[in-house]
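Subgroup meeting minutes
Present: P.N., E.W., G.H.
Scribe: E.W.

1. P.N. recapped why we're keeping a running log of single-chain structure predictions: easier to compare across weeks, and new members can see raw inputs and outputs side by side.
2. G.H. added today's entry (229 aa).
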Amino acid sequence: MRILLVEDEESIREALRLNLEMEGYEVVATGNGKKALEYIGGQHFDLLLLDVMLPEVDGFSITEQVRLSNNEVPILLLTAKDMPQDRIAGLKKGADDYLTKPFNLEELLLRVGNLLRRSQRVKGEAPELFEFGKNRVNFDTYEATTWRGEAIALTKKEAMLLKLLVERKNEVVSRNQILQAVWGYDVFPSTRTIDNFILAFRKYFEEEPKQPRYFHSIRGVGYKFTWGG
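Output recorded in log:
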């Protein structure tokens, strides 16, 4: 899970980054609201953790701008103000939760975890055992059975990409979202690399690979898993 942390107090920002990373999250951090909007415009995040008082663009304004195009990503606001009207203003602009400074670290981590779990349930998190058509995939063991009854072993990257597409079934998943969710920032595969994964999925799971039912490439946009089950 990728979290954008926007906090202008460096000591708080670094402490939060460290603790979130210890929980297993990938964290991108900045202390500047304008920079935060640049990150949001070019990357995929599973949660936004925003301080309200920020240089250049404040947390309320970031929330408002994000909600113009994205109603799904959870937003947790942090603020030193404890006035009811401030909490109401943040929630009205589209925040999902609100925490007042100074806060208890354990409470913050619990709220982050709850928001992420709720978000995944809404998106339709892929079950560990998933069947489509005559195909069956075990995301725990990376084992699959094809429509021919053939048992295959998926690579970790294949399983991660397949799970991402299944979770976003019937939606176009952009190349950037795939890069960040499957490859992270260590390696930047070419579009051809992702195409080869899609071709492999067609070979495994499509009865007619040249006329795919499930795995589609949307030219110039991304990739889509189509399934009505």
